[in-house]
């Protein structure tokens, strides 16, 4: 007997996740709770029993299988949209009959893929575990670097986070970095764990959702890692490259060519047709500065640096146009950039004495007109 957690639609064909399955059969997948925190995949070969699983899932009732056979066939972490396996190494169960059962000696418990956990719970987990929801305060960024992802340079930033039960690290990517600020608290949904030495840390995925929440607090003692300070460099721009890379919201793959004036675009890898403004745009590139002593610096532009430059300078009209952004930056008489210890540009622009912000000519004109410095939708 076990609790039914979720069930898929009825399928006909070789068994999903079983490479040895050759014949076509009718079955449906289900996730079950067989103990206090043990979740397993079930294949039921009686399609008419799917309604039993559905009702038991809604009512949090137990289900009893008859003529159950355990197998050790391959499992996958994500079998269908409604069936997730918590422990990929545990054996599957093949069930031919199922019926509602009596009370079980352990309580129904939501899988970790959807429940809220504390930092202390995270620290007790092993690597490659899915974590549903964590609410934590962002302490500070400890690392920032560019990493090739599917052939495209992507920005990665590591933050120290905490709640009243403990402290750990969280890795965010590209646009997710723009969603958090140091000292504020957030709700992070759909994370995974990995090991960093003896400590379990968290990492985001393309499915991660970040929402601002009220202050969650911190433990009695907080470890603040030593972080090297940023460096400010100034010079004349002699060269710049800004690449604007659209990514599909469905498969997260980068697109090679999106027509600037087209309202729709078909994703090259997965083939889905989406509105152009539905794609997620990220930036990367290089800027070359000439300094007074004939020295030239080649600096790497990050997604967050270009995004903030576009937003502060009211450049929404050219936000998805790499060549136009390059012309805008090249037109700056002097550029000032903040560079972190990894040699990445954190922010850049031309210093405007009137506002204290780094603004381009267009940005300064907008400030003089009392303009809004927000970036338009889709950036």
UniProtKB/TrEMBL annotation:
**Name used for this protein in its record:** Replication factor A C-terminal domain-containing protein
What is the species listed in this Swiss-Prot or TrEMBL entry?
A: Coilia grayii
Instruction: Give the domain of life.
Output: Eukaryota
What the entry lists under Gene3D superfamilies is as follows: Nucleic acid-binding proteins
| Region described as Disordered | 83-103
């Amino acid at each position: 007997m076990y609790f039914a957690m979720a069930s898929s639609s009825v399928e006909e064909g070789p068994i999903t996740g079983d490479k040895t399955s050759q014949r076509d059969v009718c079955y449906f997948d289900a996730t079950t709770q067989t103990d206090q925190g043990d979740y397993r995949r079930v294949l039921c070969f009686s399609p008419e029993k799917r309604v039993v699983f559905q009702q038991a899932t809604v009512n949090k009732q137990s289900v009893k299988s008859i003529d159950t056979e355990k197998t050790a066939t391959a499992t996958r972490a994500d079998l269908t949209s409604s069936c997730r396996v918590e422990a990929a190494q545990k054996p599957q169960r093949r069930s031919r009959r199922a019926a509602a059962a009596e009370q079980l000696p352990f309580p129904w418990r939501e899988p970790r893929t959807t429940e809220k956990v504390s930092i202390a719970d995270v620290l007790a987990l092993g690597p490659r575990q899915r974590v549903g929801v964590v609410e934590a305060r962002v302490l500070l960024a400890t690392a920032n670097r560019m990493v090739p992802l599917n052939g495209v340079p992507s920005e990665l930033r590591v933050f120290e986070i905490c709640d009243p039960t403990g402290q750990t690290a969280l890795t965010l990517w590209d646009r997710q970095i723009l969603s958090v600020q140091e000292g504020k608290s957030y709700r992070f949904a759909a994370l995974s764990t990995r090991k960093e030495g003896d400590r379990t840390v968290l990492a985001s995925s393309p499915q991660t959702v970040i929402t601002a929440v009220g202050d969650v607090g911190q433990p009695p003692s907080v470890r603040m890692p030593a972080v090297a300070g940023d460096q400010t460099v100034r010079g004349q721009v002699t060269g710049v490259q800004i690449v604007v890379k659209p990514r599909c919201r469905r498969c997260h793959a980068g697109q090679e060519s999106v027509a600037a004036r087209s309202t729709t675009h078909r994703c090259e890898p997965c083939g889905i047709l989406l509105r152009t403004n539905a794609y997620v745009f990220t930036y990367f590139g290089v800027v070359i500065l000439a300094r007074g002593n004939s020295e030239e610096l080649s600096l790497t532009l990050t997604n967050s640096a270009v995004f903030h430059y576009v937003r502060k300078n009211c450049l929404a009209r050219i936000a998805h146009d790499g060549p136009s952004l390059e012309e805008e930056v090249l037109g700056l008489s002097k550029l000032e950039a903040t560079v972190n210890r990894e040699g990445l540009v954190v922010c850049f622009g031309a210093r405007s004495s009137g506002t204290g912000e780094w603004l381009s000519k267009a940005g300064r004109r907008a400030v003089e007109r009392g303009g809004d410095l927000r970036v338009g939708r889709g950036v």
